[in-house]
Amino acid sequence: MIPRSEHGISRKQFSPNAIKVLYRLKDGGYDAYLVGGCIRDIMLGIEPKDFDVVTNATPEQIKKLFRNCRLIGRRFRLAHIVFGREVIEVATMRGHHQSDDSCATTSQASEHGQLLRDNVYGSIEEDAERRDFTINALYYSINDFTLRDFAGGVEDIKARKIELIGDPETRYREDPVRMLRAIRFATKLDMEIAPQTRAPIKALSPLLGHIPAARLFEETLKLFLNGKAEENFLQMREYGLFSQLFPALDKILSRPESEFERRFIQQMFANTDSRINANKKVTPAFIYAALLWFPILEKSQALAADGMNEYDAFMQAINHVLAENAKHVAVPKRFTLGARDIWHIQQRLDKRSGQRAYRLSLQPRFKAAYDFLLLRVESGEQDQSELAAWWTDYLKSDVNGQKEMVRNLGNQGKPKRRPRRKPKRKPKED
What we know:
single chain, 7-stranded mixed beta sheet, Beta Polymerase, domain 2, elongated
């Protein structure tokens, strides 16, 4: 237990709504603590984005205290206290699992050791042991303003070390997503993964195959949109995790001759990080369009080699790759539709005659597709550099300049018209 005078954390650093939740629980006769990432981030000098609360009140008891509460989750039963756009997540303290059948309705594990349901409640000490990493097992008490550190998290924050609580293999089997979280925390917080925490990851990476594809989409989004996507990508490949998420792309990237493909993906993530760190907008559709681009091209070429026309081959390749990858990472339709637009426009960028360039530039996803073309050139696709330069000049020009550029193309980009066949002349009758 660390007193207020030693830990330096003030209530002024907390969300006012989080404080309201803590005091409402306290006044209701329950213990309540701020826990996890918000405490960790404050100690690191980072402004927390979320505030999580843990209590000995059950979800049903929490709901009785808050009219603005909704209960969510089956695997982990949680209470969300809604204050407009801010949501304070409240969890009941977790306990240890029993081996008998008495807790079958509250706890369930798969044959691989993965927790399918974890609604066994316990004490704060037990809850700390159920946390994933030591740096996330820090509890701030609203009663006496002390900090409870049950796993040496304060020292690990000072040492900038990511360490699992308990046996690493067991904890990864309970929830394989912890392998992705270890990487994300290490890059986000500029920390090192402890050797014993790092050691089993590569061998256990196939366990990600047992995680619902929808959950893995949410986890990849966190990895790609936190300003450390390039570093996360490199570490995921190093530990064999990327191959479990995007197997078709990883297979291509693993070939010695795929230098351009590796450069393209890494450059895409580097550009994404630059935009995020400059507070610019990033669309997940662009990221997933890049991640699935090479598998689509490879499948399209294979179908065309079997005799299918290029357009149909490209369309069928898109459908095939999206369906296959959805088995691993289920990208929502709102993003796959955007990715489809980006891919389709790549096939139309060289068709610029007449009104085509103007009409294409009005497409909602044109800017993203244009950036995709620039990424291809930036990564080394030099045969597209002239096309990229033309579009860059076109977008900078006024209407008259754009019309002049199209006229200067001559017949370039126009479809070849089949010559009109002259009607056969009937032989003259004698």
